[in-house]
UniProtKB/TrEMBL annotation:
GO terms for biological process: peptide transport; transmembrane transport. SUPFAM superfamilies: MetI-like (SSF161098), P-loop containing nucleoside triphosphate hydrolases (SSF52540). This is Oligopeptide/dipeptide ABC transporter ATP-binding protein. Residues 94-282 form the ABC transmembrane type-1 domain. It is a multi-pass membrane protein; Peripheral membrane protein. Keywords: ATP-binding, Cell membrane, Membrane, Nucleotide-binding, Transmembrane, Transmembrane helix, Transport. Belongs to the binding-protein-dependent transport system permease family. Belongs to the ABC transporter superfamily. It comes from the Bacteria. It comes from Kutzneria buriramensis.
Length: 663
């Protein structure tokens, strides 16, 4: 993809600058305090033994001396320097705290995220393991394990704390992953063909960082406290200096009784201080990770100025990429691009899509209408092979004709073929952009992800330029590439989703109620944009919506679904003027028209069928105003009536007498 220098320059500016966010998080005085205190403890832990004024075990004459110039923190009953013990102890305590937190967090993330994301047998086995560790009583187990490992030093303590602590975090992360993996933005990432490892790293883990960070920092504090408690109880090697062993000797030598506060005070204070500092750091991390928590001050004047100048720089410089040859095919040409035959989708015993057949031509808009539960989304997911268990396709064919004229069987594709088919040839715009976009990733980065997954050879500037171009195509200012989804209006979010869908110039775009959550003005803008893009770029659209008037306006062909079947398939105008199926007539009678004479809205009596208990014969029969006896006996197939077809027995030759009345 050749890039224009001007575009590259502009694109460079929309690269996310994650590094700066850390600096912004540090602007909070509380976070800064926490970070500084934590850093001081970490530095002391490293250099403590070198800067300690005395050997912490050296016995002197200055027994139980309060703080003085020679001994800043006083001495023990044996005249040992408490400051030196604290400095040596800082190393042991911080090592245990950080070491336990690393091991515990790695175990929790590995087990929790793997179990939650993979599900099935892996989830059952890993959850069983976590549950076993959860029901083991923590403190007694720690005491027993520590009793067996008193001389193994800090590593033994880390092992004990990690073994008894990982299961809780794993449970929380598993629950979060289970919920996240069903979110639309993870579905969208899967649909764009991203690999499982990348989905976990880019979509699942970033959304759990707050929990992981809280768990890590909490474990540091808990481990330091546990180590201190074990040492205090004499269950560790009490000749190794840690804040816990200082407390052990203070208690053993009756420091409390003799009022030697300087003996136990510093160790207690150090534990409390590091705990508080880590909590403050945790707040800062939360703010850094969750863009919604970031203060309004983040949009600094500087940032605003940068955006304005970027806008100016962008004017007149945006260069549209040359439209590929295949785009020059006239819209509405008759060659079939997608041929769906006798498709069936089951959810266990429920058949949600039953014997559905249709063709989609290049540049055509196929609108799918029908009440809620009629199987529209299930059909869309099946076409894209995004259906998930319990959904399965026991029967049918989906044939896709490639631009070179060769035809491929979509149902026979393996995962690699599917990965390139989805998004390169067929993309999906999901119903709710707020859920389909990753809340912790900038819009530009999300569009870029599809490019990274499918154009591994492209360079970062090329991708960034394409992001700018795509945003321009859908009418979003280029500087919005740096915005998070919550910073955009609903209409912009939906347009951003369309930009993601267009990223790889697909031949077909499946749009599942892309404008449902938007007000009518924005809805109109987006629909106009989709139609303009379709005419310009020449892709085909499968459009699903409840809005029948919109569907008639947009579509070339309309498929009406009822109880999982297509009951009418007709050119949009014919459908509007001469609906053939009684259900289509009912649907049209339920919608007001903005133009033309006022008409009474009659609607359709009754409610959509329960797919688990479909009536015999025609499933619309119980609600049909023109049903007759034969309708209870057999299910009608589609009958051709002019350019339309309808699944109604009134068009069967046997009942020809009725055709005159209904056609
Ligand atoms: N995960 C599932 N497990 C079991 N049955 C399901 C599942 N998802 C959908 N169904 C069944 O499939 C039928 C069709 O659902 P689908 O979501 O495709 O309908 P729809 O026409 O798209 O509805 P809506 O317009 O409300 O989105 C539903 O009535 C429901 O009974």
């Amino acid at each position: 993809m050749a890039m224009q220098p001007a575009v590259l320059a502009e694109a460079d500016q929309v690269e996310p600058r994650a590094g700066r966010l850390w600096l912004r998080a540090l602007r909070s005085p509380l976070t800064l305090t926490g970070v500084v205190i934590t850093l001081i403890f970490c530095v002391l832990a490293v250099i403590g033994p070198w800067i300690a004024p005395y050997d912490p075990s050296a016995v002197t004459d200055a027994a139980t001396a309060p703080p003085s110039f020679d001994h800043w923190l006083g001495t023990t009953q044996n005249g040992q320097d408490i400051l030196s013990q604290m400095l040596y102890g800082a190393q042991a305590s911080m090592f245990v705290g950080l070491g336990s937190a690393v091991v515990t967090t790695v175990l929790s993330v590995l087990v929790g995220v793997t179990a939650g994301y993979l599900g099935g047998v892996s989830d059952e086995l890993l959850s069983l393991l976590a549950n076993v560790f959860l029901v083991l009583p923590g403190l007694p187990l720690t005491i027993i394990l520590a009793a067996y490992l008193p001389h193994s030093g800090s590593l033994g303590i880390i092992l004990v704390i990690s073994l008894t602590g990982w299961a809780w975090g794993a449970r929380v992360l598993r629950a979060q992953t289970l919920s996240l993996r069903k979110r639309d933005f993870v579905e969208a990432a899967r649909a764009t063909g991203e690999r499982t490892s990348k989905i976990i790293l880019r979509d699942i883990l970033p959304n759990q960082l707050a929990v992981i960070a809280a768990s890590f920092l909490g474990t540091v504090t808990a481990a330091i406290l546990t180590q201190a408690s074990l040492a205090f109880l004499g269950l560790t090697d009490v000749t190794q200096w840690s804040w816990g062993t200082i407390l052990y000797w203070a208690q053993a030598d009756s420091a409390l009784l003799t009022g030697s506060w300087w003996w136990f005070g510093p160790a207690g204070l150090a534990i409390a201080l590091i705990g508080t500092a880590l909590s403050l750091v945790n707040f800062g991390i939360d703010e850094f990770i969750n863009p919604r928590l970031r203060q309004a001050g983040i949009a600094t004047l500087k940032a605003q100025r940068a955006q304005v100048s970027r806008k100016r720089a962008g004017r007149g410089k945006r260069v549209r990429r040359g439209v590929q040859d295949r785009r020059l095919r006239p819209a509405g040409s008759t060659d079939v691009i997608l041929d769906v035959r006798h498709l069936k989708v089951n959810y266990g015993v429920v058949t949600a899509v039953d014997d559905v057949s249709f063709t989609l031509r290049r540049g055509e808009v196929l609108g799918i209408a029908g009440e809620s539960g009629s199987g529209k989304s299930t059909l869309a997911y099946a076409i894209t092979r995004l259906h998930k268990p319990p959904a399965e396709i026991p029967q049918g064919e989906i044939r896709y004709t490639q631009p070179d004229g060769s035809t491929v069987d979509v149902l026979a594709m393996d995962s690699d073929e599917l990965r390139s088919f989805r998004w390169e040839e067929l993309s999906i715009v999901f119903q709710s952009a707020m859920h389909a976009l990753n809340p912790v990733m900038r819009i530009g980065a999300q569009i870029e992800d599809a490019l990274v997954a499918h154009r591994p050879g492209s360079t970062a500037p090329e991708r960034a330029a394409r992001v700018v171009e795509l945003l321009g195509i859908v009418g979003i200012p280029a500087d919005r590439a740096n915005s998070y989804p919550h910073e955009l209006s609903g209409g912009m979010r939906q347009r951003a989703m369309i930009a993601v869908g267009l990223a790889l110039d697909p031949e077909i775009i499946v749009m599942d109620e892309p404008t449902t959550a938007l007000d009518v003005v924005i809805q109109r803008q987006i629909i106009d944009k989709i139609m303009e893009l379709k005419d310009r770029l020449g892709f085909s659209v499968v459009f699903i919506t409840h809005d029948l008037s919109l569907l008639i306006e947009m579509s070339d062909t309309i498929a009406v679904m009822y109880g999982g079947r297509i009951v009418e398939l007709a050119p949009a105008q014919d459908f509007h003027e001469r609906p053939q199926h009684p259900y289509s007539r009912g649907l049209l009678a339920s919608f007001p028209t903005l133009s033309g004479p006022k008409k009474e809205l009659t609607g359709i009596p009754g409610s959509p069928p329960d797919l688990r208990r479909l009536p015999s014969g025609c499933s619309f029969r119980p609600r049909c105003p023109v049903a007759f006896d034969a309708c209870a006996e057999r299910s009608p197939s589609l009958y051709q009536i002019g350019s339309s077809s309808a699944a109604c027995l009134r068009y069967d030759e046997e009942h020809a007498v009725t055709i005159g009345e209904t056609a």
